[in-house]
Amino acid sequence: MKVLYFAEIKEILQKGTEEFELENEMTVEAFKKYLFETYPEISGKQFQIALNEEFVPNDEMIQPSDVVALIPPVSGG
User: Fold this and answer.
1) pLDDT in the model for residue 74
2) How many Å apart are CA 71 and CA 23, to the nearest integer?
3) CA 63, CA 57: separation in Å to the nearest integer?
4) Residue 18 and residue 59: Cα distance in Å, rounded?
5) pTM to 2 decimals?
């Protein structure tokens, strides 16, 4: 799966994209847990998950061919 990082998360990880080898589908919640274990420096950061350019709930299934984006909250004025 291709993972896209934006804003604060992109700055912390110092990369905008990454490829993960995913053999089976997994829930968004399981993917978040995996990310926090892999990158503890983003644990506790707020972000939404977009799956193939659509925001999805934590129980949505991620397929190995999907594109996942981590999108932190955006403030504006």
Assistant:
1) 73
2) 24
3) 15
4) 22
5) 0.90
Tokens of 53: 């350019």
Cα-Cα-Cα-Cα torsion 32, 26, 34, 74, nearest 10 degrees, comes to -20
**Using CB atoms within 10 A of its CB, is residue 7 exposed (0-12), middle (13-18) or buried (19+)?**
middle
Q: Is the confidence at residue 15, as pLDDT, over 80? A: yes
CA distance 39 to 67: 19
Instruction: Tokens for 59, please give them.
Output: 């129980």
Structure tokens at 63: 């397929």
Strands 67-71, 2-5: pairing is parallel
Q: What is the pLDDT of residues 21-74, one digit of tens each?
A: 988 999 999 999 999 999 999 998 999 999 999 999 999 999 999 999 999 887
